[in-house]
């Protein structure tokens, strides 16, 4: 491997992680990383004093350009838009702490707010460095990150979770759903629970959020009675959340993740859009 390629590969996980958290899908992140590589390879190595800073700047600006067009597409997206689920402790993305709820809430930030927040609070860059990346004064970047934090605190509050609680709730919910235990489902759900579905207009899914333990429990109990069971159900952990994956005919049809609140299930995320599940298949 030549030195130019070796340096880029050293930073690839960071660039992929930045792209994923900026854009919400691995496919878009990979496209951005590939475009960053083309621009990196076009510049003579002796002209780049700080490779990470150069690569960060290129990736961040490409992401900002992409978000401008993505915002238009999201306005016409059918139903809720959820980030693509990714596994932890893999080479897909590095493990910085950005919860699934935070990634959803970031959809309401401006592209510059999102970039300032991620680069400073998650990737540890100074506001002076971020100012260079975003072509804004450091003070402006500080304000952007501050506004982002205020919004995220209000839209995605943190709930303390005991070790193993998510897995326990996911397993119990799956058992109750399989058996059509309506009361058991209700007991597992927080009274203010919310279910978000993402079918992307490609497969059938609820277009609007479903609120309340009673409505969510009745929906799953009804689905158990009416739907053919999946060929395989697999326990998963994506984006720091426990859940399970349904597979039929060798393809993933659902990834359902559980966000615990106060010992019960507070939020559920059901990703059904096949474009976001294409990487998963039976082995």
TrEMBL record:
GO biological process, alphabetically ordered: DNA-templated transcription initiation
Domain RNA polymerase sigma factor 70 region 4 type, residue spans: 105-152
Subunit composition and interactions: Interacts transiently with the RNA polymerase catalytic core formed by RpoA, RpoB, RpoC and RpoZ (2 alpha, 1 beta, 1 beta' and 1 omega subunit) to form the RNA polymerase holoenzyme that can initiate transcription.
PANTHER family in the cross-refs: ECF RNA POLYMERASE SIGMA FACTOR SIGJ, SIGMA 19 FACTOR
Protein name, UniProt field: Sigma-70 family RNA polymerase sigma factor
UniProt xrefs under CDD domains: Sigma70_r4
Domain called RNA polymerase sigma-70 region: residue spans: 7-71
SUPFAM superfamilies: NTF2-like, Sigma2 domain of RNA polymerase sigma factors, Sigma3 and sigma4 domains of RNA polymerase sigma factors
Organism for this UniProt entry: Luteolibacter luteus
Cited InterPro entries: ECF_Sigma-70_Domain (IPR052704), NTF2-like_dom_sf (IPR032710), RNA_pol_sigma-70_dom (IPR014284), RNA_pol_sigma70_r2 (IPR007627), RNA_pol_sigma70_r4_t2 (IPR013249), RNA_pol_sigma_r2 (IPR013325), RNA_pol_sigma_r3/r4-like (IPR013324), WH-like_DNA-bd_sf (IPR036388)
MF GO annotations: DNA binding; sigma factor activity
């Amino acid at each position: 491997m030549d030195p130019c390629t070796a340096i880029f590969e050293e930073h690839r996980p960071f660039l992929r992680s930045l792209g994923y958290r900026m854009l919400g899908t691995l496919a878009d992140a990979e496209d951005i990383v590939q475009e960053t590589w083309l621009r990196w390879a076009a510049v003579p190595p002796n002209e780049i004093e700080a490779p990470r800073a150069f690569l960060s700047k290129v990736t961040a600006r490409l992401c900002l350009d992409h978000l401008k067009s993505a915002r238009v597409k999201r306005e016409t997206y059918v139903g809720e838009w959820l980030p693509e689920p990714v596994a932890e402790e893999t080479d897909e993305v590095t493990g910085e702490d950005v919860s699934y709820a935070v990634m959803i809430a970031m959809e309401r930030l401006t592209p510059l707010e999102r970039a300032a927040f991620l680069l400073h609070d998650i990737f540890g860059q100074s506001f002076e460095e971020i100012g260079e990346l975003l072509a804004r004064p450091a003070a402006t970047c500080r304000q952007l990150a501050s506004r982002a934090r205020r919004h995220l605190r209000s839209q995605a509050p943190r709930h303390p979770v005991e070790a193993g609680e998510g897995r326990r709730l996911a397993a119990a919910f799956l058992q109750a759903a399989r058996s059509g235990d309506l009361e058991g489902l209700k007991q597992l759900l927080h009274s203010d629970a919310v279910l978000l579905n993402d079918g992307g207009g490609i497969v059938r899914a609820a277009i609007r959020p479903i609120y309340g333990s009673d409505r969510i429990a009745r929906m799953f109990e009804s689905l158990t009675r009416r739907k053919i069971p999946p060929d395989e159900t697999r326990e998963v952990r994506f984006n720091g959340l426990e859940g399970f994956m349904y597979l039929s005919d060798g393809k993933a049809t659902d990834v359902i993740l559980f966000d615990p609140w106060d010992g019960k299930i507070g939020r559920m995320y059901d990703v059904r859009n096949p474009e976001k599940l294409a990487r998963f298949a039976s082995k």
